[in-house]
Design goal:
Layout: H1 20-26, H2 28-31, H3 36-48, H4 57-85, H5 109-112, H6 139-163, H7 167-195, H8 214-221, E1 227-230, E2 255-258, H9 282-294
C-alpha cells in the first residue's frame, strides 16, 4: 500500500512568467525513455515480481523503497511542467482564439490534450510506453539495469539543464541530480555485494560532479547526497545493510533517514477557463464546492 502526503519533495520557486517551451523540454524527464515514469515503473514492477524476498530482504527493500521515492519525483516533475505552462494563454471567448499562441509552441499536446498541464509522455508529445519496463526476475541483471537507467536519466537531466536557464526547471533538476546520484550509488553498492565488482568507481556518469551545478550543489551542502530516505513507518529497514559507510566524496557517512524529506507546498494552479480547466465558468464549480464544504 502507499501513504500519500500532500507536499512536494522540495519547494519550487514561483515562476515569474510562463515558459511553455521549457515545459516541453522538461517533459522528457517525466515521460521519456529515461524519465521518472520509467524509474518509478521499473522499480515498482521489480518489487512486485521479486522472488526469494525473505532471503534477499536488503535487496528487495532497496528496490521497493526507491520505487516509492520515485512517486514523489514524478509529482515534482509534473509540478514543474505545470508551473512553466501556467499563464501561457489568457481567458477569452472561443471565437477570439484564446489558445492561438499554442500553435507556435513546441508541444501543442500540452494545450490540446491536458488543459495546459503535464503529460505521461516525452518532450515531443509521445506517450510513455510500458515496454520501457525491465523486470527480468534475475536480481543482478535487474540491479545492473537500474544502475544503467539512473546513469541514463542523469545524462538527460544534465542536457535539459543545459537547454534552459529557467529557475523553476533548474531547481527541480538540481534536486533530482542529487537524488538520482543517491539511487545510482545505492544500486552500484548492491551490485558490489553480489559480484565483488567495484561498480561505484564508475560514477559519476557522465564524468561531471554535481557540484558543477549551483542548484545541485546547495542540496549536497545540506547532505542530501548521503541520505537515503525510508518511505515507510515500519518497513524497508534492511536498506541500512547496503546503504552505509563513507560517502565517495569523503564528506561524511551514508545515512538512512527514517522519514520523508522536509518537502514544500504543492502549488495551487490557477484556473484556465479558456482550456475549460476546471470549467468554462469555474466560479460555478467553486460555488458548489463551497456549499459542500459548508455542509
Amino acid at each position: 500500500m502507499y501513504l500519500r502526503v500532500d507536499r512536494l519533495a522540495i519547494e519550487l520557486p514561483q515562476p515569474k512568467e510562463p515558459d511553455a517551451n521549457a515545459a516541453a523540454a522538461v517533459q522528457e524527464l517525466l515521460g521519456g525513455r529515461f524519465g521518472e515514469m520509467s524509474t518509478l515503473m521499473n522499480y515498482t514492477y521489480q518489487s512486485f515480481n521479486f522472488r526469494g524476498r525473505e532471503k534477499l530482504r536488503p535487496y528487495y527493500d532497496l528496490i521497493a523503497n526507491i520505487a516509492t521515492e520515485e512517486l514523489g519525483h514524478i509529482e515534482l516533475v509534473a509540478a514543474t511542467v505545470n508551473a512553466l505552462l501556467s499563464g501561457s494563454t489568457r481567458p477569452g471567448e472561443p471565437a477570439s482564439a484564446p489558445l492561438g499562441v499554442a500553435k507556435n509552441l513546441r508541444n501543442t499536446h500540452h494545450f490540446i490534450a491536458t488543459g495546459q498541464a503535464s503529460l505521461v509522455g516525452n518532450s515531443m508529445g509521445g506517450h510513455w510506453n510500458g515496454d520501457y519496463v525491465f523486470s527480468s526476475g534475475n536480481l543482478i541483471l535487474d540491479l545492473l539495469h537500474n544502475f544503467f537507467l539512473e546513469c541514463g536519466a542523469r545524462t538527460q537531466k544534465i542536457r535539459v539543464y543545459e537547454m534552459t536557464t529557467n529557475p523553476v526547471a533548474r531547481e527541480m533538476i538540481g534536486y533530482l541530480l542529487v537524488r538520482g546520484s543517491v539511487h545510482a550509488l545505492a544500486y552500484a553498492k548492491a551490485l558490489q555485494t553480489l559480484t565483488g565488482v567495484e561498480i561505484p568507481k564508475l560514477l559519476p556518469i557522465p564524468k561531471i560532479e554535481n557540484d558543477k551545478f549551483p542548484e545541485a550543489r546547495k542540496f549536497e551542502e545540506r547532505g542530501l547526497h548521503r541520505k537515503l530516505y525510508r518511505f515507510s513507518p515500519e518497513d524497508y529497514k534492511e536498506i541500512a545493510k547496503l546503504w552505509n559507510g563513507p560517502a565517495p566524496d569523503g564528506s561524511g557517512n551514508l545515512e538512512v533517514v527514517d522519514g520523508l524529506p522536509e518537502g514544500g507546498p504543492v502549488p495551487d494552479l490557477p484556473e484556465a477557463p479558456e482550456s475549460f480547466a476546471p470549467e468554462y465558468n469555474p466560479e460555478e464549480l467553486a460555488e458548489m464546492a463551497a456549499r459542500l464544504m459548508r455542509g
